[in-house]
Amino acid sequence: MTKAKRGIYAAAISPFQADGTLDAAKLTSYCRHLLTDGGCDGVAPMGTTGEGTSIALQDRLALPQAFQAAGFQSEQVIFGTGAPAIGDSIALTRAAVDAGFCNVLVLPPYFYKNVSDDGLFAAYARLIEQVGREDLRVYLYHFPQMSQTPISPELVVRLRQAFGPIIAGLKDSSGDFEQSRAIISATGGIAEDFDIYPSSEAMLWQGLSIGTAGIISGSTNAFGTLAQAALRATQGTERDAAMAAVQAGRAVASKYPLMAAMKQIEAWRSGDDSWTRMAPPLTNLSPDQAAELRADLDQLNQV
What we know:
47% of the residues lie in helices and 11% in strands.
């Protein structure tokens, strides 16, 4: 098992069956698309965009085995294993590493608010110690708008000092570029093998210029090829044009409820309307929203 490769990641959307259970076979097929025609270097299933916290624990526990059977490599996948109960997070992390996937994206326990760094340190320490694998690679998940449980640069440094390379990186979904900069300043970023991923491809080269590892984004479900083109573009007018296309795609995605929009786009791409199913309490796009999104995509010459 190897640490996740750097580059463009999609926070993969999740397909549901008619009874609301996760369709693991469809998800693995979709993630294979993301890694080929979808333009991504890796996938991050069971995160926020994947509605991971709305999916039954039994479905989440079984998913890594489905990815193993489908032939995914450890370096291509970062599984979301965060949960309010640290015991559930431990079980999810064990399921990932037992199936050959050492890279996990872990929200802090997020039900109780205003908890101390000592409490969060204890939670991550328990997960690492009880999983008990030296090859485990934990990516901290900083999403204060949603979790209301921020991860401070000081906590990141403390965890890194205690557990070394097991604390492999951080996904910064705060939307605040200065937060990513502060964590890079505290940890050294990729120069010290600590991989920070902002959550918007619009920040791609801004981040890479200061030591981020790439991006993990929900909108790269639809616009991964644009982000990959920008990553590979030669500095200068080629990169400027590629980044303008990335920013236009991200601007479209930002107009709509992100998960519902990404699922609608995939339904159009695949011809499979079951992709629009959402896990309650989330709902799919209204007919008016879908029509507007279709027009926006036509303008971008996408899908």
